[in-house]
Amino acid sequence: MSNSKHREVIAAVNEYMKSVNPEIRKSPWREHYHFMMPSGWINDPCGLVEVDGVYHMYCQHEPFSAYKGQMYWGHAKSKDMIHWEMCGEGLAPSEPYDDWKDGGIYTGSAIYVDGEIKFFYTACNEKGQVQCLATSKDGDEIVKYENNPIIGKAPDGINPHDFRDPKVWKHGEEYYMVVGGTEGESVLEEESTYSKNGYGKVLLYKSKNLIEWEFVNYLVESRGELGTMIECPNFFQIGDKFVLVYGPMGMPERKSVYLTGNFDYRIGKFNWNVMGEVDWGFDYYAPQVFVDHTGRTIMFGWIGSWPFMPWNHLKYDTNDYNWCGSISLPRVVTICDDGKLRFEPAKEVETLRKGSEEYKDVILDDNRPFFYDAGTDNVHCEINAVIEVEENVSKLEFGLRETEENSTKLILDLKKGEMIFDRTKSGNIEASMRHCELESAGKSEIEIRIFLDSSSVEIYTDNYRTVMTNNIFTKDGKTSLYIKSIGGQSIIKEMHTHGLEKVISW
C-alpha cells in the first residue's frame, strides 16, 4: 500500500481548493461562523478528537463538486471549536479498497491512544463497504494501515453495501466498535443507495489491539420501529445511562434519532426505553460525539439533507456556486431525569458575540409586532428571549429573515403545542414547512434561543430539549426581525441580542 500516493492525492486536492476558493468565497450564502470547506460538497462530521488542547474535526468532503461523489475527509483544527484553522484534506481515496469512483472514504471516528490518533473509517468499493484504520501523530499527516481493511467483510445476513460508519471507544482494557448495517436489499434510486424492505441493525465488535476485531452481538435490531438502515451510530455513556444516536433510513420524517437506556457489556445488548429526536429541522444529520478534557460530551452535526428525505429533490441552492453544506455549532449533550437529552450550545459560542442589545417589558399583540435589532445586519446574530404569554394567546410569531422579497417565519403554536419553521417564502428551492412538538406550549413563559448565519438557522427551546436546524437561502437586502403575539397579549420579559463575529475566512 502506497502512502506516498496518498500524500500526492492530498497535495493535488489542496492545490485545487486553493485555486478555486477565491471565486467560491464571493458566492452568496457563505457562512460567517459555521464551518465549511473551501470548495465542494461536505456532509458528516468525522474523526472528532481532542489532543493536547487542540480539537480536530474532519468531515466527509467531495472537493471537486457541489454534489456527493467520491468522498474524502476534510480537516480543520481549533483551540475552542469556534475559531477554526483550515488544514486542507486529511484522508483521500488512494488504494484499491477505497478508490472506487462512486465511493471513497466514508464516515468514521477517532480515538487518541499512546501518543497517536487512531482513525477508523469505512472504505467504499464496488464489492461493498469495509472498515479501515489509519494513524497520525499530529492529526495533519495521516498514514493508512498497510494491512487494511481491518474488518473486510460484513457478517452473514448483513448487506455488504450497507455496512458502515465505525465509532470506536475504550472500556476497561478492551476497545469497542459499533457499525451501522441492514439485512435488507440495497437498491440504487435517484442517485442514492439505501436499504429497502430490510431492518436496520447496529453491530458491536470488540478488540484488544484495535486491529483484530471480534463480532459480539447486535447492539440493537430494528423490527420496523428503528428504520431500514441505521447510519452513523454513536454509542456512549452519560452518567449511569447509555445513549445511541443514529441516522435512520426508511423513516422519512425522522433524521437524527436518539435512544437512551441500559447496557450490559457482558451481553452486548442495548435495552433502550426512551426515543427522541436530536434535531427536528430540515437540515441536521449524522451527528457525532466525543468527550473533551473537561468531561463534556460534545456533538457536531452536518447542516444539510439527503435525497431520501421527502423535501429534498436532488437540487441544492448553492450547487451552482461549487459548494454545499456546513457543520453545526458544538452542542453539549446532557441527560434529563426522564431519559430525554438536552443539547445546549457550548459556552465557547459566546466568544463570537459583539454589539449586544437588551430589551425588557415590551408588550406584544396582533397590532403591535415588535421590530428589533441584532448586530449590524440582523443576519449574523444570536437572539435569547423569555416571553410571558397570557392564557388566550394562540401563537407567537418570529420574523427571522424579513426582506422586501423573502420571508422566514418561526411560529410557536401554543394551542396545538407545535413549533413550526416556515421557509415557503425564504427563497429556498425546497420551499416547505417543518413541524415538531413544543413541550412548553402550556407554560406561562416561553424561552427561545436562535442563531442566524448567512444560510442557516439553529433554534433551541424547551430548555434545550427541542432543537431545529434549517438552511435558508434569502437574497441580500435590508433585513428586519420582529416578534408578534397572536390572539392575545404577551410581554418580552427579557431579551438579549448579539451580533456574531465572522471567523470563517475561506
Commentary on this structure:
- It is built from 1 helix and 36 strands.
- The protein has 506 residues and is mainly β.
- The protein has a 6-stranded antiparallel β-sheet, with no helix packed on it. A 6-stranded antiparallel β-sheet has the order 26-35-28-29-30-31, with no helix packed on it.
- A hairpin with a 3-residue loop joins strand 32 and strand 33 (456-461).
- The protein has one helix spanning 3-24, and strands at residues 40-51, 54-62, 72-78, 84-91, 104-113, 116-125, 128-136, 143-144, 163-171, 174-182, 185-189, 192-196, 200-207, 214-221, 229-238, 241-249, 257-264, 269-277, 285-291, 297-303, 323-324, 326-327, 331-335, 341-345, 353-364, 370-372, 381-389, 395-402, 407-413, 418-425, 433-437, 445-452, 456-461, 466-471, 480-486, 490-500.
- The chain has 2 domains: 3-345, Tachylectin-2, Chain A; 353-500, Exo-inulinase, domain 1 (Jelly Rolls), CATH 2.60.120.560.
Runs in which pLDDT lies below 50 for 5 or more consecutive residues are 188-195
CATH class of the largest domain: Mainly Beta
**Helix proportion of residues, in percent?**
under 10%
Second rung of CATH, namely the architecture of the largest domain:
5 Propeller
Mean pLDDT: 95
Shape: globular
> Strands of the biggest beta sheet: in what spatial order?
25-36-27-32-33-34
